[in-house]
Amino acid sequence: MTTTLLLHKPYGMLSQFRPEPGSPWGTLAELIDQPGVYAAGRLDADSEGLLVLTDEGRLQARLTDPARGHWRRYLVQVEGVITAAALDNLRQGVIVQGRCTLPARARAVADPALAERDPPIRHRLQVPTDWLELELREGRNRQVRRMTAAVGLPTLRLLRTAIDLMDGGPPLDLVGLAPGAWRAVSPLEQQRLAALLRPGRP
Prior knowledge:
Blueprint: E1 4-9, E2 38-39, E3 48-54, H1 57-64, E4 72-79, H2 84-92, E5 95-96, E6 99-100, E7 105-109, E8 129-136, H3 143-150, E9 155-163, E10 172-173, E11 182-184, H4 187-195
């Protein structure tokens, strides 16, 4: 029986179970005691939000395959004021490490009133901040941070809120999960994930 979990990864945790020598970051072993599961994809230690963990290697590969293009949704607090031009640039693609990013979905959103991060975001009194919802179909190294920096909006806080299974159903999301909390996927979610692995599935 496949084990698949949804975790709200908090700030300061690596997306792995083994510590890195000399690293100040914690690991998932401090939160999860289910043997044999590993993250399908990753979030940087200084990012927060949804991680899918599974003991099914084929599912890990399916969810992280760039050719499949699963949309991933992020809430991003940025330093500065979001402009229409910045949103257009993010949607069309920006140059990151010498290559243009794929077209994205981007919109300005109201402050989502998230729980305070530990440690809290460092604010500069004379510099405004805004919130952005960004959806990507690729997962290059520190891509969200590099994209917002490319349009003059440095990222202050980054939270992945959802992963779309691209099957017509609702995305997997963080609803009901506080930072550090996890749950097993529901029977329906498990069925949908299993369906991704059927032969001939696009």
